[in-house]
Design goal:
Layout lengths: L7 H8 L7 E2 L27 H11 L4 E4 L2 H7 L8 E6 L3 H7 L5 E6 L12 E5 L11 H12 L4 E5 L20 E6 L12 E4 L2 H11 L6 H11 L2 H24 L5 E2 L3 E4 L4 H9 L3 E2 L1 E3 L5 E5 L4 H17 L2
Parallel strand pairs: 1-11, 3-4, 3-5, 5-6, 6-7
Antiparallel strand pairs: 2-8, 7-8, 9-10, 10-13, 12-13
Length: about 325
C-alpha cells in the first residue's frame, strides 16, 4: 500500500509516544468536523439501499446534474481505470499518488507530467487526471482551461478526470456543473471539508451513462446506511457550510502567516499548507520529537504539508516547535 497521512500508529510505534499524546497535522482534513447526528434506530439492521435523497442533495451542494455516491473517492480512483480499454494516460505530477498507482495498472500506458507541461500533453493521451486544487502543492488550473481540454479529449473518446477533494471552499472553480459533457469526470470528497473521513463517502459527477457503468462495476450496497444518513444531514446544512467556509479561510490565513513569520513561504488550500523543504526529513523528525505529526513527501513533491491546528493549545505548540526549528538551524 502507498503511504498516507493520518498514520498515527506508525508515529506512536516509531517514537514511543502514546497515541493520545500526538498532534496530528499530517492530513488536510478539517479539524472542526461536522457533528454527525445519530442514525435511525434500524440503520445497522437494514441493507443500505441507495437513498435518492442523498444523490439529490449532493447534486444541489456540488452543483452537478448527476452524481453517484461511492465508498470514498478512493473507490472511484481504483475503479475508473477498469472501465477503459488500455489507454495512454497522463497524470499530473506531483499529486495524490493513488491516481498514478491505479492508472499504472490494467494495461494502461502511464506518464506523469508536471503541471506546467500539461497543456502540451493533452493531445498525446486519451485520459488526463488532475487534482484541482492539487494535493499536496495547492497548484490550480483555471476551470476555463480545463473545460477546453475536456472538449479536446472527448472529441476522440477520451476522459478528463478532475479530483476536487479540496475544492469545497472554492466553489466557483468546480467543474461539477459541466459534467453533463461526455468524458468529464469530477470526484468530490465528504471527508475533507466536513471532517468526516471515517464515513468513507465520496461522489462522482459524470455523464449518466458512465455513472451507470461505474455503479455496475462497484456493485450493490457500497455506502453504509448510517453513512448515507450522516452525509444527507451535512450536505443540506447550509448555515454550517457557510460558517465553516469563513472559519477555514481565516485559519488558513493564520497558518500562512505563522509559517511566514518563521521564514517559510508556503502555498496550499484552506485546509493545508505545503512548501518545498530542503531539509524535509530533518524538519519531519524535529516535529515528531515534539509530538507533532506532519506529512513528509520524500520524492516528487519533496517537502512538508501541514494541516490546520484544531485549537489554541495546538497553535501554541506548533509556534513553539517552529521557533525551536529556526533556533536550531540558524
Amino acid at each position: 500500500m502507498l503511504e498516507h497521512g493520518g498514520n498515527l500508529r506508525d508515529a506512536a510505534r516509531e517514537y514511543g509516544r502514546p497515541l493520545a499524546d500526538w498532534i496530528d497535522l499530517s492530513t488536510g482534513i478539517n479539524p472542526h468536523w461536522y457533528a454527525a447526528p445519530a442514525p435511525n434506530a434500524n440503520a445497522w439492521h437494514r441493507l443500505p439501499e441507495a437513498d435518492p435523497a442523498l444523490a439529490a442533495a449532493a447534486c444541489t451542494y456540488y452543483g452537478a446534474p448527476a452524481m453517484l455516491p461511492v465508498a470514498g473517492t478512493q473507490a472511484a480512483i481504483q475503479a475508473l481505470p477498469r472501465l477503459r480499454p488500455p489507454s495512454r494516460v497522463v497524470v499530473a505530477a506531483p499529486s495524490y499518488a493513488e491516481h498514478a498507482h491505479h492508472w499504472g495498472q490494467h494495461g494502461h500506458q502511464l506518464s506523469q507530467v508536471p503541471y506546467a507541461q500539461l497543456a502540451g500533453a493533452v493531445d498525446s493521451c486519451e485520459v488526463l487526471v488532475i487534482c484541482n486544487p492539487n494535493n499536496p502543492t495547492g497548484e490550480r488550473i483555471a476551470p476555463e482551461l480545463l473545460l477546453a481540454w475536456a472538449s479536446r479529449l472527448a472529441a476522440r473518446g477520451g476522459w478528463l478526470v478532475v479530483d476536487e477533494a479540496f475544492g469545497d471552499t472554492e466553489t466557483q472553480a468546480s467543474l461539477g456543473p459541466h459534467t453533463h459533457m461526455p468524458g468529464l469526470i469530477v470526484l468530490r470528497s465528504v471527508g475533507k471539508f466536513f471532517g468526516l473521513a471515517g464515513l468513507r463517502l465520496g461522489f462522482v459527477a459524470a455523464h449518466p451513462r458512465l455513472l451507470a457503468q461505474l455503479a455496475d462495476l462497484l456493485g450493490p450496497w457500497t455506502v453504509s446506511g448510517p453513512a448515507q444518513q450522516v452525509a444527507l444531514a451535512a450536505l443540506t446544512d447550509t448555515p454550517w457550510q457557510t460558517a465553516m467556509r469563513s472559519r477555514l479561510q481565516q485559519e488558513a490565513a493564520r497558518l500562512r502567516q505563522l509559517l511566514a513569520a518563521h521564514g517559510i513561504a508556503s502555498q496550499g488550500t484552506d485546509l493545508f499548507q505545503w512548501w518545498p523543504e530542503a531539509r524535509a526529513e530533518d524538519f519531519w523528525r524535529h516535529m515528531a520529537q515534539r509530538g507533532i505529526w506532519v506529512r513528509l513527501f520524500r520524492q516528487a513533491a519533496r517537502g512538508i504539508r501541514l494541516g490546520l491546528p484544531p485549537d489554541d493549545a495546538t497553535w501554541h505548540s506548533l509556534s513553539q516547535a517552529l521557533t525551536a526549528w529556526n533556533k536550531d538551524n540558524t
